[in-house]
Amino acid sequence: MSTLRTNNDTWDIATSVGSTAVLVAAARANETDRPDPLIRDPYARILVAGAGTGMWEHFLDASIADRLTDADPEAVAMFTHMLNYQAVRTHFFDAFFADASAAGIRQIVILASGLDSRAYRLDWPAGTHVYEIDQPLVLDYKAKTLAEHDVQPVAERREVPVDLRQDWPAALKQQGFDPSQPTAWLAEGLLMYLPAEAQDRLFELVTELSAPGSRVSAETAGHHSEERREQMRERFEKFADELGIERTIEIQNLTYNDPDRAELADWLNAHGWLASGERSTDAMRRLGRWVEVPMADDPDAFSTFVVAQKA
Ligand code: SAM
Hints:
Elements: H1 16-32, H2 44-49, H3 56-60, H4 64-68, H5 73-102, E1 107-111, H6 118-121, E2 129-134, H7 136-148, E3 156-161, H8 168-174, E4 183-187, H9 196-208, E5 215-219, H10 226-243, H11 264-269, E6 273-279, H12 280-286, E7 304-310
Parallel strand pairs: 1-2, 1-4, 2-3, 4-5
Antiparallel strand pairs: 5-7, 6-7
The structure holds S-adenosylmethionine (SAM).
S-adenosylmethionine (SAM) binds at residues 17-18, 20-21, 24, 112-116, 134-135, 138, 163-165, 188-190, 193.
């Protein structure tokens, strides 16, 4: 399923799954610099800059649009789609947290927070605690880099440096998490890096730790046939060559493309939650950011943004 992963693998910000956090932060930096941004992440550029050299630099490069004019239109569409997708995804989950805060939830858990700067950039009501779970070196990099730039969190931010395949509920409680209080959870950019059974286990634990009134949100992992994966790999190679992008990360080799992964909304509905989802393709259209891409005919290839509330 995943050729570069083992059950106990670890990473820092610039390697393996850690580097994917830099890529998505670079996409947020790019969006923030647009004249019509869907989201603003003023810390993304700082966080990417400190992570060293990598593919992500191309996402930051403002001149890339000029270089794209001579590129194959398919490559342009894929690159634009990739950036738009990240902006729409961030926008969706920013809105989820705004709604949860408006509903009075003051306990937030961001699973696999990576370089997510929401604890620093969203308008949290007083008394909000944001728990961030990720691998120790990832959390450490973010906190140190932002502190060096005198950036302070808006909410009370608590780090939970633990792998989500280990006993993270114990680590979360140790940092002060209170399971008797309603919580708003987020799993964004995470589920594709977990095998199917680890996804189920994750949401079993989230369910156990969620008081009535809690909310959960997640980006589901799309599924691709092996043939489709190969096509995507070839297209990406062509597109990277055209743009002069050195392929330092093979994301496909870090993800688990499990065909029997549970449909998350169905799973939540069967486990005490009231869940619904918006297909990411629909969210992109709703926000005026849809671009036709070669795999548009394959609905399974795209994620869904799921939200749920516990009775
Ligand atoms: N959620 C962040 C965002 O959207 O900006 C980061 C997404 S990034 C694509 C994937 C993140 O998942 C990385 O920060 C990585 O360290 C984290 N991650 C993946 N598997 C993990 C695990 N088993 N335990 C802890 N963190 C994990």
